[in-house]
Amino acid sequence: MVHRLDRPTPGTATAGLRPSRRDLLRVTAGVGAGLTLALMLPGGAAPAQDVAAAKDAGDAPFAPNAFIRVTPDNTVTVVIKHLEMGQGVFTGLATLVAEEMDAAWDQIRPEHAPADATRYNNLFWGPVQGTGGSTSLANAFEQMRRAGAVARAMLVHTASEAWGVEAAAVTVEAGVLRHAGSGREASFGAMADAAGRLTPPDPQTVDLKAPDRFRLIGQTALPRPDTAEKTDGRAVYAIDVRLKGMLTALVRRPPRFGATLRTLDAEAARAMPGVRAVVRLPNGVAVVAESFWQAQKAREALKIAWDDSAAVTTGSEAMLEDYESLAQTPGTVFRNDGDALAALTEPQARVVEARYTVPFLAHAPMEPLSAVARLTDSGIEVWAGSQTQTFDVLNIAEAAGLRPDQVTLHTVFAGGSFGRRASVGSDYLREVAGIARGLTNQGIEAPVKLIWTREDDIRGGFYRPMALHAVTGALDATGRPVAWRHRVVCQSIMAGTPFESVFVKDGIDGTSVEGVSDLAYAVPNVMGDLHSPTSPVPVLWWRSVGHSHTAFAVESFVDELAHAAGADPLILRMDLLRDQPRLLRVLALAAEKAGWGLPMEPGRGHGVAVHKSFNSYVAHVAEVTATDGGFTVDRLVCAVDCGVPVNPDIIRAQIAGGSAFGLSAALRSRLTLDDKGVVEQSNFHDYEVLRLAAMPEVEVHIVPSTEPPTGVGEPGVPTVAPAVANAVFAATGTRLRRLPLTLG
Amino acid sequence: MVRLKINGSVQELDIPSDTPLLWALRDTLGLVGTKYGCGITQCGACTVHVDGQAVRACQTYVGDLVDAEITTIEGLSGPVADAVKTAWIAADVAQCGYCQPGQVMQAVALLAREPAPDDDAITTAMNGNLCRCGTYDRIRAAIHAAAGALGTAAADTAPAEKG
Ligand code: FES
Ligand code: FES
């Protein structure tokens, strides 16, 4: 079992992308440059000229393809290929490198990688650099460890040569190389220069630690290296980037999705203080001023008439009515085991029916969308919390009228994202590039920062789609579920995008039905079908994607089946999951820790939900109390199995944070369009998210595991809403089937 | 011209008096630790201290701040601030971190006024500070920890003060 960690994960793209013998692991170094390791991937042509350039630069340790830089000052810089947006990837990937290097944790400095898919691609995404789907730690687990192990091997070799001793007799601990026999020791920094002259071994030939030798992986006390700067205000997000002479741009976009500009009168706006330019964009009009405040005031002075001929002009209530009608008709089948329709019409079948609906939701990261661009003769430089660098570069290039190789994209901390910064068309980055281009065309040479106001963010689209689930089940005479028919009505997030061919197969957008298509319950007859209505409302992945609504339907419905059968909802789940050991384990653990089955006062109740998403397994037990006309969530107990727990404290933070995010959707957030198609909410006063007062006590229990690690950014979200809805039913006898959950 | 006293030094700014303090700090003075999150006092990301009180800089106008002592996250100092920052770092409160300067400013103002707040007092004081990453449990724990550390420090120095 121990060696399990070192094998590729079956069924993941790692298998196909494992570095082959053609891979290069090379060291580039100039005098004093220290050790730079570069792990090359297949297809990543080793740019020899870059290596040479780095050598010529003398003290420039930045060579391409590098994950690790050791400098003589004893700092180990770990180059992080993923976006740090709060999920802790700086800590996670640095832990892997430090573990295999046997570095001291306090000598590690993570930094964002440049945009370059040949070196920094997500191994699960092919030739694409990006962060999402809770893949960061999983895809980089072996890659980062091998990079660290190679560094260690080279440092050991260097020490053994310097000291004239056997390499096997050199030990490494907390960044110090030692030879016990002679009592000699040296820091990594002291050996860096000499190690930089070696030819590195093939990364596939270096030994990785067996899990029982891990010193950092699994350690709870490892502090996050980015905490201090995020506590005292030094951390820089895109909205904080300041360049000399920089201007600020705000964009007026149409109030209805799909509308276009008909007429523009910018005279009044142009005359306002500080205004430097007005730029027409494909989706709106930018006002560019010397400061945010000036730009915001001037934006209000724009006189615009919109052309609504292709715009959405119906409200979300009417759309939902259409969804209800659609749900009466068969959709495209995505799963069909046995014969669900026949089982539902068996004479002795007890039929249970329910409909669940969820609204559109905005991501609302605390840092609204923002980016800085500087367009010069040589190209465009952009600073952003970029979540999909490879696509962002292509989109920026297109909007700026340049070639992709003329784009330099600097990734900076993102103040949250939850999927928003991974918009498929890089909407906000196209805007900033278009504005920079417009300024240049108007003879203005200045860098520009685009800021979306919170109102822009809430009204700007790219929502989690509204969805309706119509589910019908049948129990046999003994109360066992024998049929499950599940119809999903949900706008596709991938239709019409360049990814349609990847995500939409045979008319099924997999992200609309994930969590139902892989329904884990042992029900003999299962049928699922899908309607994908279209609308001009832009929709997108939102933390946990399809699972954010499918788990609500599935886990509410299985609860309804249990109650219909007179069974304990926990016992029924355990019975139907008897062949699913990892789901079973988190379910049992959460239930045990929550005190499931212990008597509760009247008006209080427990609800449970369990779900697999992004290859992680999560169960939540919610404890609620009915209040006068409402309810409160007092406690959430969560169990998670995410394979080997690399950073237990970050797992706890992500699951607690995911629980809060899930609670926002369960209790508060709702994005609606009025009957003329205009978004009704605009800021946090009417698009509500969870506040501290409503945050229950959250307990997170981690299942010990030696399976390869899987993500935790998203899997904490899906089970929250159904656990709460099920608890409300237990406490009050009222079944809530619509998010956000409201009693009465 | 507007005269502001920020982090102990007087600044003359050539901006209209109806400019929100938030944008004077960020755009004119380059003090970007104070964040924009909503612009309408709904999130607390822009929290600063004016004469020791936590206020929302997005809806405070520079013309109203004559003679006021303004402190931003960059200028925050003293034993309470140190205790709060230490507790925040020890608990690894921050995720994306974007709300955290505002949370820290709010927590320091609370503890300066009420050295040992109970859960209700923490809820009342902190409920206006949103954290979309959901770090609320750690915020609460860190405030208790900071209060505890300040209490211990006060107890340690008490006899010395008496003597
Ligand atoms: S920006 Fe001031 S409270 Fe949100
Ligand atoms: S830490 Fe991200 S919003 Fe609070």
Descriptive account of the structure:
Chain B: This is Isoquinoline 1-oxidoreductase alpha subunit. Chain B: Residues 1-76 form the 2Fe-2S ferredoxin-type domain. The complex is a heterodimer of chains A (744) and B (163). Chain A has 744 residues and is an alpha+beta fold. Chain A has 3 domains: 25-227, Aldehyde oxidase/xanthine dehydrogenase, molybdopterin binding domain (Aldehyde Oxidoreductase, domain 4, 2-Layer Sandwich), CATH 3.30.365; 238-310 and 369-451, 2-Layer Sandwich (Aldehyde Oxidoreductase, domain 4), CATH 3.30.365; 316-361 and 462-732, Aldehyde Oxidoreductase, domain 4, CATH 3.30.365. Helix content of chain A is 29%, strand content 23%. In chain A, the strands form 7 sheets. A 7-stranded mixed beta sheet of chain A has the order 11-12-9-19-16-17-18. Chain A has a 5-stranded mixed beta sheet with strand order 1-2-3-4-5. In chain A, a hairpin with a 2-residue loop joins β26 (616-627) and β27 (630-641). In chain A, α17 (547-565) packs parallel to α21 (720-732) and α20 (648-667) crosses α21 (720-732). The longest helix of chain A has 28 residues, at 136-163. Chain A is globular. The two termini of chain A are 52 Å apart. With 163 residues, chain B is α+β, with helices and mostly antiparallel strands. Chain B folds into 2 domains: 2-75, Beta-grasp domain (Ubiquitin-like (UB roll)); 79-156, DNA polymerase, domain 1. Chain B contains 5 helices and 5 strands, in the order ββαβββαααα. In chain B, strands 2-1-5-3-4 form a 5-stranded mixed beta sheet, sandwiched between helices. In chain B, a hairpin with a 2-residue loop joins β1 and β2 (9-13). In chain B, α2 crosses α3 (100-113) and α2 crosses α5. The longest helix of chain B is centred in the last third of the chain and has 27 residues, at 136-162. The relative contact order of chain B is 0.15. Chains A and B meet through α7 and α20 of A and α1, α2, α3, α4 and α5 of B. The structure holds FE2/S2 (inorganic) cluster (2 copies). One FE2/S2 (inorganic) cluster (FES) sits between chains B (94-100, 131-133, 135) and A (86, 366, 416).
